[in-house]
Design a protein that fits this description.
binds uridine-diphosphate-N-acetylglucosamine; alpha/beta; seven-stranded parallel beta sheet; 45% helix; 2 domains
Length: 386
């Protein structure tokens, strides 16, 4: 039932979309801020179901207090084409049912692009949060999603100053671009006090004996196709992680994609190393607890580059490029690529010196979602101009 406004007109609807793990921590503060700062808008939520495992999904909704989705499209996994097409086919009738005034997408996953494309073709304005990030590496599926989603969007919220130049270069009108800051950092600020202590994570995993004292261990995550889909590259990276465990205790939280590749290529024994603890994917509060007390984080995730910068924890990124250059220019991030020698040299340097010291980037202040909600409110007040 649509709640009427005082003058009995239905409230304009904003249809928010999530699909996979990195979307959830972005959407949680946006939906909360829309309800508080733009109450005349009726924010609804669609989950495409791109991620469906409890560890990649429900844990986040519960921990972050995200409202239950109005609709779950249950698309699941597939090739890029099949997954994107499935989201599109199932999202169209959802749009017809909900009839929103605008669709809000976040990030750069397949669901982001698929829903933006369906909305744009139905002449429904698109809002993109986390616009303008570019790795300039089109072999990355997310880079294609970013470029195309931005082309389809009417209101583009950016996280760092470089993004505006990237968007202008691609012909996006300046009036559409709004520098709002990083919404993931809103979530981080809100939840830091609730982060799960490492000792609790180890107890829950039945590994109370694992020697991960505060500030004395490394956290590793890895899931990019470029790192995990090739047996040779994955094998070398697993050997590198095992080498790292000679230097300090390592907690490796293993993404389902990585887990299935390790099994497929028969690489499981590479993880049987003292002081290397392999764990399933963590919930948000658990991951925050691990990162905040880590001496160093090694990862190929986009979000973790940002979270470690916000936490002031050194991050060694297992990629040659980043779409988030502010984490390198101002934050604690160093690009290491896939070369074991370089990764281990950077790790040794980090252990010797305490690691790269950074500062908090502009507008990563915990108030990004408020700026976003206020901008959407004023745009809605003008009738959602394209
Ligand atoms: C997706 C995003 C990526 C993001 C990542 C975070 C795209 C193109 N990629 O990558 O940008 O950084 O999510 O996790 O959208 N699987 C499960 N259970 C799940 C989900 C996935 O077992 O709940 C396994 C399946 O084997 C699946 C594989 O992981 O085939 C990959 O899942 P998919 O959603 O295609 O991409 P991710 O690698 O998770």
């Amino acid at each position: 039932m649509q709640m009427p406004t005082p003058d009995h007109r239905p409230r304009p609807r904003i249809l928010c979309v999530v699909g996979a793990r990195p979307n959830f921590m972005k959407m949680a503060p946006i939906m909360a801020a829309l309800s508080e700062y733009a109450p005349e808008l009726d924010a609804r939520l669609v989950h495409t179901g791109q991620h469906y495992d409890k560890s990649m999904n429900h844990q986040y909704f519960d921990a972050l207090g995200i409202p239950a989705p109005d609709i779950n499209l249950e698309v699941g996994s597939g090739s890029h084409a099949a997954q994107t097409a499935d989201v599109m086919r199932r999202f169209e009738p959802a749009l017809d049912e909900i009839r929103p005034s605008a669709v809000l997408v976040v990030g750069d996953i397949n669901s982001t692009l698929a829903c933006a494309l369906v909305a744009a073709k139905k002449s429904i304005p698109v809002i993109h949060v986390e616009a303008g990030l570019r790795s300039f590496d089109r072999s990355m599926p997310e880079e294609i999603n970013r470029i195309l989603t931005d082309q389809l969007s009417d209101l583009l919220f950016t996280t760092e100053r470089h993004c505006r130049d990237n968007l202008l270069r691609e012909g996006i009108a300046e009036t559409r671009i709004h520098f709002a800051g990083n919404v993931m950092i809103d979530t981080l600020h809100r939840n830091l006090q609730r982060a799960v202590p490492v000792a609790d994570i180890l107890r829950h995993a039945g590994r109370k004996d694992f020697p991960a004292d505060r500030g004395g261990f490394a956290v590793v995550t890895m899931h990019r196709p470029s790192n995990v889909d090739d047996p040779h590259i994955l094998g070398r990276l697993l050997d590198t992680i095992a080498q790292a465990a000679h230097r300090l205790p390592v907690i490796f939280t293993i993404h389902p994609r990585t887990r299935s590749m390790i099994d497929k290529f028969g690489l499981r024994r590479k993880l049987d190393v003292p002081r290397l603890l392999a764990l399933p994917p963590m919930g948000y509060l658990e991951m925050l607890g691990l990162m905040k007390d880590a001496r160093v984080v090694l990862s190929d995730s986009g979000g973790i580059q940002e979270e470690t910068t916000a936490l002031g924890v050194p991050c060694i990124t297992l990629r040659n490029n980043t779409e988030r250059p502010v984490t390198v220019d101002e934050g604690t991030n160093i690009l290491a690529g896939q070369d074991p020698e370089r990764i281990l040299a950077l790790l040794d340097e980090t252990l010797r010196t305490g690691g790269k010291v950074g500062r908090i980037p502009e507008f990563w202040d915990g108030k990004t979602s408020v700026r976003i909600a206020q901008t959407i409110r004023s745009w809605a007040g003008k009738g959602f101009p394209r």
